[in-house]
């Protein structure tokens, strides 16, 4: 069953299924040039090796001469690292083998009619590629940001399947109906395994979204409560000032009656200054965002960290206010925490938001120590339990297709998000 035409066809299919599982490190054009360029080289080498070695010997070296070069080219173009990358490669090969094994079974079930094999290959290839492109790939790319651990166990299951169908089941070079049936059955079992995986992924995603919603609710309540407390404090102070206003007017009138007009003016000026000090500063019209700014700017002031804020938000907002509030809350919280460990004279936070030509926000803080960034350009969590804030910002950027950039330069760390 492993003839030259099958090898050449499945090499192209393998390149495609592998590509459908990866998150591109380069542009789409460059990625396709690299992967399909290697594919052409592999096709030519397969042709000459098949002619030189013969069908049986070539079948035994097929993994090394065919699949390894393809997997290395795809691994080079993948943005993922570690076990996530291994899972991508093994999954691409798995679905390629699913096509091959079930096409072979369909060939035998048809009574070994010549037309059955190419027709089965074409039909199964079309079904699998559409399934991967429209369903599995979008869902899997979303899960990369949710699941950070456990990929090695999934890879172990796929590796066990690969080892069984290639090396345990006999007569790989000359397939029989029995071996084709066994391999097709194992392929369907792996499809069932993937179904279970996606159910687990769905539960993990729902759990993450539930935690995000709970954090968002807690943030909104805390920020609004803080804002209400500040408003009440101002109202109390104004109530006292109104109560004392009659006495001040009497005092000013007495000073004028004595001919001490300048002292009366200075006295009233000081009273006006006290009134102006009691006003509540409003940062934007959106109530939740305004509460977030006020809350974290107040926290910075309590630890003697100056804040430079230039905030210009569009009305209406291009994204959900609650989601945007989470981004500012996480960014400002990280800035406040990072500033607290700096010497008092070096503490400073800058918050800048512009609405044209597109919404851009930047939060930066003085940071003497260089910040390590991960493969996605986000800060690496220094301790267990940290890093949830940056993960939340990454999820926001994926949801709204925003660009996120972190950088450390000249003693300043900055986080910039562009919508």
Bin the strand percentage.
Answer: 5-15%
Q: Helices and strands: which structural class?
A: alpha+beta
User: What level of helicity do the residues show?
Assistant: 55-70%
Strands in their spatial order, largest beta sheet: 1-2-3-5-4
Number of domains: 2
Protein topology:
Blueprint: H1 4-19, H2 28-53, H3 55-60, H4 62-77, H5 82-109, H6 116-143, H7 151-168, H8 177-257, H9 261-277, H10 287-302, E1 307-311, H11 321-340, E2 349-354, E3 360-366, H12 388-400, E4 403-409, E5 412-418
Parallel strand pairs: 1-2
Antiparallel strand pairs: 2-3, 3-5, 4-5
Structural notes for this entry:
By secondary structure, the protein is α+β, with helices and mostly antiparallel strands. It has helices spanning 4-19, 28-53, 55-60, 62-77, 82-109, 116-143, 151-168, 177-257, 261-277, 287-302, 321-340, 388-400, and strands at 307-311, 349-354, 360-366, 403-409, 412-418. It has two domains: 4-207, no CATH class; 281-419, Histidine kinase-like ATPase, C-terminal domain (Heat Shock Protein 90, 2-Layer Sandwich), CATH 3.30.565. Helix 5 runs antiparallel to helix 8. The radius of gyration is 32 Å and the shape is elongated. The chain starts with a helix and ends with a strand. The model is unreliable at 383-387 (pLDDT under 50).
